[in-house]
Design goal:
single chain; 159 residues; mainly alpha; two-stranded antiparallel sheet; 4% strand; elongated
Length: 159
């Protein structure tokens, strides 16, 4: 009867490959990983017990200096935003000094836009004049880049 059974040596398609997967190696790796996790948890628990015994369960929390100890939350955020925007609009739409000693003043934004439309943006040809970090005493020298002859003549008459 032994002759009727297929033998692995005679019919290789009926065998399985034993050297591809080592089940025992995978099992040993899994057991080692589980043991490592258990040892890590035990070490953490020991560390927690050490800190608890050393500090007596107290945790020192330092709060930033201030009159209240809790968080400073906005009670009325919509009104706060409206006040903030009103203050910004007041600055944008009024005259005032930025630095009176240096002679720097602030003008309303509408007037500033009108000045830019009338006079154009300050521009100087590249490679001429002082370094970009130095103040430019004459910002509107040279033709504007890409300007036609009519635009150049118009800019000369506006000066």
């Amino acid at each position: 009867m032994a002759g009727n059974k297929p033998l692995p040596e005679r019919e290789p398609e009926l065998r399985h490959e034993t050297r591809d997967v080592d089940v025992w190696a995978i099992g040993r790796f899994g057991m080692g990983l589980a043991l490592l996790c258990i040892l890590s948890l035990a070490g953490l628990l020991g560390l927690f017990h050490y800190f608890e015994s050393r500090y007596g369960g107290r945790v020192a929390i330092t709060l930033p200096p201030g009159p209240e100890s809790g968080p400073r939350l906005e009670v009325t955020p919509v009104l706060d935003l409206a006040r903030e925007r009103a203050a910004e609009d007041k600055i944008l739409n009024s005259y005032g000094w930025v630095d009176q000693k240096a002679g720097i003043a602030r003008i309303p934004i509408d007037k500033a836009m009108d000045f830019v439309v009338e006079r154009g943006l300050p521009w100087q040809a590249p490679g001429t004049g002082p370094a970009p970090t130095a103040p430019n005493p004459n910002p509107a020298t040279g033709p504007m880049p890409g300007a036609s002859r009519e635009q150049e003549d118009l800019s000369k008459t506006n000066k």
